[in-house]
Amino acid sequence: MVARPPIQWYGCHPDNTMPKPAGIVPEAIVIHTTGGQNTADDLARWFGGLNVQQGLRGSTHYGIGRDGGIGAYVEVTGNLAPIANGAYDNATAKLVKENAGINANYWTVSIEHLDNANPGSVTPIQLERSAWLCAWIWETYIQSHAARTGATLDRDHLLQHKEFDPSGKPFCASWPEDRMHQHLAKMSALLNPPKPQPEPIPVPPTPVIDWEAKYHEMEAKYLKLKGETKQWVNYDAAGAAMRNTRLTEL
Question: At 71, phi and psi to the nearest 5?
Fold first, then answer.
């Protein structure tokens, strides 16, 4: 079981969400990158209303700062969805076509990665926390519905924003393919840790034999047995003499 990462709840401005119908479950994770900022707190202020003040709307479920801090802004299982993934006609994501007519924000879990205005840039701790968060999201919100949705841990279910809107968001998240596949591998390792192997039973050490003591022990046994043999021979000789005397008397 994947442990829950350290997540801080922030919430967001109501105008940055949309109503979500009941009965639709998540089946994919979407990687986003911001156009600046550094921390989950920065993103909380933006989603908290700064973007609305500028006439913008938008949010994601989670955000990961460059220091590894994780913020939560929209509940995955609530009745609201973030405004994150618009699905356009030129979308390249396979699931967009499979879920045609269903708003992509309903069946995805979105994660912003704070990039300090350098698209695709992530710090080592940010990347590590992202894999942890993605694995936890998969196990908590997606895996239990996989029989129904067909969700499998692959590139069709770990996506980038640009795969929904290639023209409008070509640099979101600007992650190279090898990083995406490494992310999947890290998720898989967290979801399927190796089973602990039983400790081998230690082989007892070969006893060290004191051959001199062993010789004296065997010699004592031999002498004892030799004495017992001589005693029985003597007993047999005495018995024979008694029998011969008796026969003479008869």
Answer: -115, 150
User: What is the Cα Rg of the chain in Å?
Assistant: 39
Give the C-alpha separation, 163 to 169, whole Å. 9
| Beta carbons of 166 and 160 less than 8 angstroms apart | no
- Tell how strand 108-113 and strand 28-33 pair up: parallel
CA distances from 14 to 47, 60, 247, 249 (A): 9, 13, 129, 132
Q: Report the DSSP beta bridge partners of residue 108.
A: 28
Domain extents for the chain? 7-191, 210-250
| Residue with tokens 């209303």, as numbered in its chain | 49
Q: What values do phi and psi take at 19, rounded to 5?
A: -60, 145
Rounded to an integer, what distance in angstroms lies between the CA atom of residue 121 and that of residue 115?
5
Q: Phi and psi of 242, rounded to 5°? A: -65, -40
According to CATH, the superfamily of the domain at 7-191 is: Peptidoglycan recognition protein-like (3.40.80.10)
- The conformation of residue 55, written as its DSSP 8-state character, comes to T
pTM: 0.79
Residues 103-127: tens digit of each pLDDT: 999 999 999 999 999 999 999 999 9
Residues 6+ apart with CB under 8 A from 18: 80, 81, 82, 83, 103, 105
pLDDT in tens, 6-18: 999 999 999 999 9
- DSSP secondary structure of 178-214: HHHHHHHHHHHHHHSPPPPPPPPPPPPPPPPP-HHHH
Euclidean distance between CA atoms 62 and 184, whole angstroms:
18
For residue 173, whether the previous peptide bond is cis, meaning omega lies within 30 degrees of 0, is yes
Residues counted in the chain: 250
Q: Which residue has the tokens 């119908």?
A: 21
